[in-house]
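Task: sequence design from structure.
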């Protein structure tokens, strides 16, 4: 996870997912990158302790070059926001060859396809969301999405969301408008 500690990002549901998959003795390391108001930071650290998570670490905000390294190393990025307006962090992960998991809500519906990841069913029930996220993480690891979906995600991000692509689309639109 990488993002702001805001309720609509649903980090609490994401933190409940390791409580499920850590029970199966899977050696999954969960990293939470980001920050938020002091109260939210304390609440998330308290939740990690309350759930007894053994391999979940909140590492705080990181500069862009470190994010690139972390996204490249990750097997999957997980961003369960409610009505995410767009979701740039999804694109950043995919550009690093990392498949993504999100909620079937908001902007990610427009670009997260089965070829690059999965959107779990939208729900207001945080425990149900956590169970869906845990199942998706298990599936991603069992099916080795990093190697099967990762290269597709990288190519998709480069082809459809890179600066080169965006500028080319803009220039083509100007050409159409001006008749050149």
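Answer:
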């Amino acid at each position: 996870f990488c993002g702001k500690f805001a309720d609509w990002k649903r980090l609490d549901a994401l933190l409940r997912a390791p409580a499920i998959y850590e029970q199966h003795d899977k050696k999954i390391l969960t990293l939470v990158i980001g920050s938020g108001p002091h109260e939210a930071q304390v609440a998330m650290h308290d939740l990690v302790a309350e759930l007894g998570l053994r391999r979940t670490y909140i590492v705080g905000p990181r500069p862009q070059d470190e994010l690139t390294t972390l996204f490249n190393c990750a097997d999957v990025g997980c961003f369960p926001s409610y009505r995410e307006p767009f979701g740039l962090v999804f694109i950043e992960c995919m550009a690093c060859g990392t498949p993504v998991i999100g909620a079937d809500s908001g902007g990610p519906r427009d670009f997260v396809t089965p070829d690059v990841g999965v959107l779990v069913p939208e729900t207001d029930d945080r425990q149900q969301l956590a169970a869906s996220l845990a199942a998706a993480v298990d599936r991603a690891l069992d099916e080795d999405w990093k190697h099967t979906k990762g290269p597709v995600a990288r190519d998709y991000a480069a082809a459809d969301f890179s600066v080169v692509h965006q500028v080319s689309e803009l220039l083509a639109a100007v050409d159409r408008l001006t008749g050149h």
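The radius of gyration is 17 Å.
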